[in-house]
């Protein structure tokens, strides 16, 4: 299984949709039956979970409202609902936009009432009271947030947590496990850390979920060495790396689908569906979606809300996630502004927009990436002599496996602030980790390296405080004055600057040429 960021400039194949994407979207297709709520765990191991490792060691919005401060994130109280009827009083949460709320409540955007004018596409201030008419039925009775947003992403609350060191110190089978990943032999702890940073998924959540499903992190279960599916997806590609990649994808589908309002219904193993309460947050829907892919509804409720729930297990393993969130959230504010960015190549050069907006890394992430290829006359898939350049000044916090990550706030933490991601950067001449780059400094050559690709190019994407971002509102992607717009399908879209329009074309020069002029 190859990470989804290793794009081919072409729409996904029917084979891929049938074999991989559809099984993820329709969880029951690849699971013959609901898996057990949790694998056997002794009371002694539950004590070890709590004690073996100490987690403390290890466009501008237009509004006529009086500015509302972005409020801190409290630990919520449970207020079960099965039906929302009449006018509903809603307090906005981190990351809310009017279009997403309209989809979650299933109402026209203009039906949402506020005490003043709000930008129709921008981030809303946290804690803003809105009145929303609603007639939702069959809403899950679990209506309050169960997990903070920051516990799902590789964001501010990761705060230097070293998943590799944790797993090695835990002494379970995971520490001894090895497997080949993309022609490189990696240990289990290395695999967890790699999936966490590359997919921007919280490593604590990956470790806890792996332990809950397999016992690999803190224990050494019989038969672990021969277990090709430690989490239990049973997909076409086996192994720890692929199991964790699927976990990251399922979390992303629930998380980012909630952010943009496209994911409002859970589908459990067996096909039963239920509407998600609009009171929830992205972190909660991510976890709910993950568990729905593995359990029928009865087992799902037990796994998340029963006496032996994953939520209690997670807290035993890593402490109270809401206390961590109180220090790191809110991190996505109505006042958040995009940095000024340039096209990732030199002034005067001719490049092509070969891939319009598409997923940033894995299935479920926003359409936040663009592909650019130099017009060089070079062979189809070679390391180009052209340079990819830094779109803003920052610190190189990752230069590995054909990826360069630039941290714009320079604190060395990829989970905080703005981070620019460049993929398919050739090994030769790639900038070194720890290098400070000024705007327009070269960072490497575009290539086909780093996965399957139909042509030499660079894949460009952004993260903010660990969240992958779409090219669209509320934080649109603008490069050298060119604003990106997504089309109706992946890789289709445009860049527009004034009256000029560049259209994405994977294999043609026609109207896909862009010249950086500033």
Number of helices: 12
Mean pLDDT score: 85
Distance from N terminus to C terminus (CA atoms, Å) equals 40 Å
Q: Shape from CA axes?
A: globular
What can you see in these coordinates?
The chain is of the alpha+beta class and 518 residues long. The protein has two domains: 31-336, no CATH class; 350-515, Distorted Sandwich (Glucose Permease (Domain IIA)). 24% of the residues lie in helices and 19% in strands. It has twelve helices and 21 strands. The protein has helices at 14-25, 43-51, 98-105, 163-170, 173-176, 188-199, 203-214, 240-260, 282-292, 297-305, 310-318, 321-328, and strands spanning 84-91, 129-136, 178-181, 184-187, 265-267, 273-275, 350-359, 367-374, 388-389, 394-400, 403-407, 418-423, 436-437, 442-444, 458-464, 467-468, 478-479, 482-486, 493-497, 500-503, 513-515. Strands 7, 8, 10, 11, 12, 13, 15, 16 and 21 form a nine-stranded antiparallel β-sheet that branches. A four-stranded antiparallel β-sheet has the order 17-18-19-20, with no helix packed on it. A two-stranded antiparallel ribbon has the order 1-2. A hairpin with a 7-residue loop joins strand 7 (350-359) and strand 8. Helix 2 (43-51) crosses helix 11 and helix 6 (188-199) packs parallel to helix 8 (240-260). The two termini are 40 Å apart.
């Amino acid at each position: 299984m190859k990470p989804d960021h290793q794009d081919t400039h072409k729409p996904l194949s029917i084979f891929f949709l049938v074999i991989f994407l559809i099984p993820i979207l329709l969880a029951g297709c690849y699971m013959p039956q609901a898996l057990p709520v949790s694998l056997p765990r002794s009371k002694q191991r539950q004590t070890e979970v709590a004690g073996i490792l100490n987690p403390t060691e290890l466009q501008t919005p237009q509004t006529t409202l009086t500015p509302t401060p972005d409020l801190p994130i409290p630990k919520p109280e449970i207020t079960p609902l099965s039906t929302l009827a009449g006018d509903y009083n809603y307090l906005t949460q981190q990351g809310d936009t009017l279009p997403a709320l309209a989809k979650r409540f299933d109402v026209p955007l203009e039906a949402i009432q506020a005490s003043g004018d709000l930008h129709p596409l921008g981030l809303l201030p946290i804690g803003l009271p809105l009145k929303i008419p609603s007639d939702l039925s069959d809403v899950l009775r679990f209506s309050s947030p169960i997990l903070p947003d920051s516990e799902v992403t590789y964001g501010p609350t990761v705060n230097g947590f070293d998943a590799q060191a944790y797993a090695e110190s835990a002494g379970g089978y995971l520490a001894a496990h090895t497997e080949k990943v993309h022609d490189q032999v990696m240990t289990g702890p290395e695999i967890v850390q790699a999936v966490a940073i590359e997919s921007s998924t919280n490593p604590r959540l990956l470790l806890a979920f792996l332990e809950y499903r397999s016992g690999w992190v803190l224990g050494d279960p019989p038969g672990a060495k021969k277990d090709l599916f430690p989490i239990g997806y049973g997909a076409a590609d086996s192994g720890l790396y692929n199991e964790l990649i699927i976990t990251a994808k399922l979390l992303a589908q629930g998380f980012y689908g909630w952010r943009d309002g496209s994911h409002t219904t859970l589908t459990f193993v067996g096909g039963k569906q239920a509407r998600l309460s609009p009171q929830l947050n992205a972190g909660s829907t991510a976890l709910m979606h993950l568990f729905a892919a593995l359990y029928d509804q009865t087992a799902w409720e037990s796994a998340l809300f029963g006496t032996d729930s994953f939520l209690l297990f997670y807290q035993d393993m890593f402490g109270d996630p809401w206390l961590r969130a109180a220090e790191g959230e809110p991190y996505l504010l109505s006042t958040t502004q995009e940095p000024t960015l340039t096209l990732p190549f030199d002034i005067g050069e001719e490049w092509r927009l070969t891939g319009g907006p598409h997923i940033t890394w894995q299935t479920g992430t926003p359409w936040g990436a663009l592909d650019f290829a130099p017009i060089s006359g070079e062979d189809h898939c070679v390391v180009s002599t052209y340079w990819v350049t830094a779109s803003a000044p920052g610190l190189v916090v990752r230069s590995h496996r054909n990826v360069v990550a630039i941290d714009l706030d320079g604190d060395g933490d990829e989970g905080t602030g703005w981070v620019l991601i460049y993929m398919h950067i050739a090994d030769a001449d790639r900038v070194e980790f720890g290098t400070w780059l000024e705007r327009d400094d070269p960072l490497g050559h575009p290539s086909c390296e780093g996965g399957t690709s139909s042509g030499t190019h660079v894949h460009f994407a952004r993260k903010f405080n660990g969240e992958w971002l779409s090219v669209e509102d509320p934080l649109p992607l603008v490069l050298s004055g060119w604003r990106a717009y997504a089309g109706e399908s992946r890789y289709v879209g445009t860049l527009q600057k004034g009256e000029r329009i560049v259209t994405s074309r994977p294999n043609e020069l026609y109207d896909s040429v862009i010249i950086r002029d500033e």
